[in-house]
Specification:
Monomer. GO terms for molecular function: magnesium ion binding; phosphoglucomutase activity. This is phosphoglucomutase (alpha-D-glucose-1,6-bisphosphate-dependent). The structure is a single chain. The protein is 33% helix and 22% strand. The protein is α/β, with parallel strands linked by helices and 580 residues long. It has 3 domains: 4-194, Alpha-D-Glucose-1,6-Bisphosphate, Chain A, domain 3, CATH 3.40.120.10; 198-437, Alpha-D-Glucose-1,6-Bisphosphate, subunit A, domain 3 (Alpha-D-Glucose-1,6-Bisphosphate, Chain A, domain 3, 3-Layer(aba) Sandwich), CATH 3.40.120.10; 439-579, Alpha-D-phosphohexomutase, C-terminal domain (TATA-Binding Protein, 2-Layer Sandwich), CATH 3.30.310. The strands form 6 sheets. Strands 2-6-5-3-4-9-8 form a 7-stranded mixed β-sheet, with helices on both faces. A hairpin with a 7-residue loop joins strand 24 (517-522) and strand 25. Helix 10 packs parallel to helix 11. The longest helix has 16 residues, at 550-565. The protein is globular. It binds alpha-D-glucose-1-phosphate-6-vanadate and cobalt (II) ion (CO). Residues 94, 121-122, 297, 299, 301-302 line the site of cobalt (II) ion.
C-alpha cells in the first residue's frame, strides 16, 4: 500500500470531554471529522508510541464503529504503526481494551501500547444518536489531561492527515491475521476473540468455583441486563459458560448497533426491564424477583447492582466492596493498598477507609485520575457515584468485575448457608453495612439537555454566592429551618499526588456543618446542550435511623439545593430528567 497526505483544515469543537470525544453520528461522519481527530491523536503521542507500535482499535459496536475501524486501520498503516489488534466484529468492552493493553501477548510476542476505543458509553447509539472515540495509554487507562489537551490543540491547527487509501478493507468478522506490505515494511491486522483475555483475567482475580456454587444453589437466582451493549459478548461467556447461570438469566445480551433503540445507561430510569424483573418501580411483573440483578452500560464499564426489590447506591457499592474485598476476593487477600472515590461520590468509602486504616484519595470525576494512583501502587479499589466501580486489575472501571465482586461477597457470606440456613441477601449486606458504618443518604438529579448558556449562568451564580456564606445561610434559613448550615463552599481543585498536576473547576461544593454536601457540576460527556448534575448527600450515624427512604430523607436538602441554585429560574425546569 502507499501513503497519501490529505489536505485538511481544523474543525471546531473537538475537545475531548470527561471520557473522550462524543458527538452525534451526523457530526462524526462529516468529511475529515474522524480523520482530523485521529491524526491529532497520533501527533500528540511521541514517535515511538506510533511508529512500529501495536495499537488496539475496537469498541462497543455502536453505529458507525465498523466504518471508523477501517478508517483508523488505514490511517495507522500510513502513520507507520506496525500492527493493529481488533476484537472480533470490532467488539471490545472498555475494560477488556484495558485488559488487552496490559495482558495480551500476540503470537509473535508483541504487546500493544495504546488503543482507540470507539464508544460513547452510556449515550444512545444509531444514525441519529451518538458516536465517540477516546485514546488509552500503555498503562491501559484513558489518556491524561496533558495528552487530551495536546490532542485538542492539534485539532485546532491541523493541516493534513496520513492515510493508506489503497489498503483494502479488512474482514473484522473472522479471527486471524491479515498482512500487508507498505513503504516501511510489513503491516498486520490481527482479529482476535473479544472475550478470552478478559475472561482469563477475571478467573485470576475471583474464585469462580465459589461463585459457581452460589449460582447453582436453588436458594439463589440471578439476572443480568446488558442493555444490548457490548457486555452481552462477555456475559454469556462468563455467567453462563463459566459460572453455570441459566441462559434465561441474561436480558438484552445481544450487542446491537443502536442498543435496540434504548438508552444503554444502567440506572433505575433506563434499565426498565431489569428494574421491573427485580420488583422495583411501578411495572413489577408480579413474579417473584431474582435475588440478584445487575446491568451494564453500552461499553460495559458501568454497573448497577440490585437485590430483590432493593437498589444499591453506587457510592455504597464501592464502600461495601472495599470493606469485604480482602475476605471475599482472592486477588485482594494480601490487603488493599488504598481506596479512592471521585469527589461527588458519597463519603461512604471514606468511613470504611478510616475504620480499616486504609490510604484514601478523593479525585475529580472521570476515571483517568485513578490511574496515576494505581500505577504508583497507592490504590486498589475505587469508584464513582455514576455506576462506576473498579480496581487496579486494569485502568478503567469495570462493570462485569463489579458484578463478580458482589457475587463473591454473596458467596463468601453464604458459604455456610447454601446447604442449610437462610440466605444472606444483597439487602442484608447493605443494611448490615449501614449498621456498622452509618449510612450516607445519596441522590443525584440530572437536568439533561439544558440550554448551555443558562447552565453556565447557574454555575456562575453558585460560585458568586459562595463569597458570602452569611447570604447562603440566610437563604437556607428561609427555606428549611431543619437543614444545618453551610460551613464551607468552594470549587473543587485537585493536585495529583503522583505527578503534581493540578485540575481546576471540578465542581462546586457546599459543605454543611453536619457533614451533608451539595455538589453541582456540568457534565463532560454529553453531545448536545448542557447537562447539570446536582449531587445530594447526608450522613446518618444513628443505626435506628438508617432505614428511611432516601428521597424522603433528602427532601429538605433537595429543596435547599433548588433554591440556592435557582434551578427553575435559570433552566425553566421544574423537575430533573433523571434521578439516581
Ligand atoms: C459521567 C460520569 C462520570 C464518568 C463519566 C464516564 O461524566 O459522571 O463519573 O466517569 O461519565 O463514564 P460526566 O462528565 O457526564 O458527569 V462512561 O461509562 O460514559 O465512559
Ligand atoms: Co461506559
Amino acid at each position: 500500500f502507499s501513503v497519501t497526505r490529505k489536505q485538511t483544515a481544523p474543525i471546531d469543537g473537538q475537545k475531548p470531554g470527561t471520557s473522550g470525544l462524543r458527538k452525534k453520528v451526523k457530526v462524526f461522519i462529516q468529511p475529515n471529522y474522524l480523520e482530523n481527530f485521529v491524526q491529532a491523536t497520533f501527533n500528540a503521542l511521541t514517535a515511538e508510541k506510533v511508529r512500529g507500535a501495536t495499537l488496539v482499535v475496537s469498541g462497543d459496536g455502536r453505529y458507525y464503529s465498523k466504518d471508523a475501524i477501517q478508517i483508523i486501520i488505514k490511517m495507522a498503516a500510513a502513520n507507520g504503526v506496525r500492527r493493529i489488534w481488533v476484537g472480533q466484529n470490532g467488539l471490545l468492552s472498555t475494560p477488556a481494551v484495558s485488559a488487552v493493553i496490559r495482558e495480551r501477548v500476540g503470537v509473535d510476542g508483541s504487546r500493544s501500547s495504546g488503543a482507540f476505543i470507539l464508544t460513547a458509553s452510556h449515550n444512545p447509539g444509531g444514525p441519529n444518536e451518538d458516536f465517540g472515540i477516546k485514546y488509552n495509554m500503555e498503562n491501559g487507562g484513558p489518556a491524561p489531561e496533558g495528552i487530551t489537551d495536546k490532542i485538542y490543540e492539534n485539532t485546532k491547527s491541523i493541516k493534513e492527515y496520513l492515510i493508506s487509501e489503497d489498503l483494502p478493507n479488512v474482514d473484522i468478522s473472522a479471527i486471524g491475521i491479515s498482512s500487508f506490505g507498505g513503504p516501511e515494511g510489513q503491516f498486520d491486522v490481527e482479529v482476535f476473540d473479544s472475550a478470552s483475555d478478559y475472561v482469563k483475567l477475571m478467573k485470576s482475580i475471583f474464585d469462580f468455583e465459589s461463585i459457581r456454587k452460589l449460582l447453582s444453589s436453588p436458594k439463589f437466582s440471578f439476572c443480568y441486563d446488558a442493555l444490548h451493549g457490548v457486555a452481552g459478548a462477555y456475559a454469556k461467556r462468563i455467567f453462563v459458560e463459566e459460572l453455570g447461570a441459566k441462559e434465561s438469566s441474561l436480558l438484552n445480551c445481544v450487542p446491537k448497533e443502536d442498543f435496540g433503540g434504548g438508552h444503554p445507561d444502567p440506572n433505575l430510569t433506563y434499565a426498565k426491564e431489569l428494574v421491573a424483573r427485580m420488583g422495583l418501580g411501578k411495572s413489577s411483573s408480579g413474579q417473584e424477583p431474582p435475588e440478584f440483578g445487575a446491568a451494564a452500560d453500552g461499553d460495559a464499564d458501568r454497573n448497577m447492582v440490585l437485590g430483590k426489590r432493593f437498589f444499591v447506591t453506587p457510592s455504597d457499592s464501592v464502600a461495601i466492596i472495599a470493606a469485604n474485598a480482602v475476605e471475599a476476593i482472592p486477588y485482594f487477600s494480601g490487603g488493599l493498598k488504598g481506596v479512592a472515590r471521585s469527589m461527588p461520590t458519597s463519603a461512604a468509602l471514606d468511613v470504611v477507609a478510616k475504620n480499616l486504616n486504609l490510604k484514601f484519595f478523593e479525585v475529580p470525576t472521570g476515571w483517568k485520575f485513578f490511574g496515576n494512583l494505581m500505577d504508583a501502587g497507592m490504590c486498589s479499589v475505587c469508584g464513582e457515584e455514576s455506576f462506576g466501580t473498579g480496581s487496579d486489575h486494569i485502568r478503567e472501571k469495570d462493570g462485569i468485575w463489579a458484578v463478580l465482586a458482589w457475587l463473591s461477597i454473596l458467596a463468601y457470606k453464604n458459604k455456610a448457608n447454601l446447604e442449610s440456613g437462610k440466605l444472606v441477601t444483597v439487602e442484608d449486606i447493605v443494611r448490615q453495612h449501614w449498621a456498622t458504618y452509618g449510612r450516607h443518604y445519596y441522590t443525584r438529579y440530572d437536568y439533561e439537555n439544558v440550554d448551555a448558556g443558562a447552565a453556565k449562568e447557574l454555575m456562575a451564580n453558585l460560585v458568586k454566592l459562595q463569597s458570602s456564606l452569611a447570604e447562603v445561610n440566610g437563604i437556607i434559613k428561609g427555606v428549611r429551618s431543619d437543614v444545618s448550615k453551610v460551613v464551607h463552599g468552594d470549587e473543587f481543585e485537585y493536585k495529583d499526588p503522583v505527578d503534581g498536576s493540578i485540575s481546576k473547576h471540578q465542581g462546586i461544593r457546599y459543605l454543611f456543618e453536619d457533614g451533608s454536601r451539595l455538589v453541582f457540576r456540568l457534565s463532560g460527556t454529553g453531545s448536545e446542550g448542557a447537562t447539570i448534575r446536582l449531587y445530594i448527600e447526608q450522613y446518618e450515624k444513628d443505626p435506628s435511623k438508617t432505614g428511611r427512604d432516601s428521597q424522603e430523607a433528602l427532601a429538605p436538602l433537595v429543596e435547599v439545593a433548588l433554591k440556592l441554585s435557582k434551578m427553575q429560574e435559570f433552566t425553566g425546569r421544574s423537575a430533573p430528567t433523571v434521578i439516581t
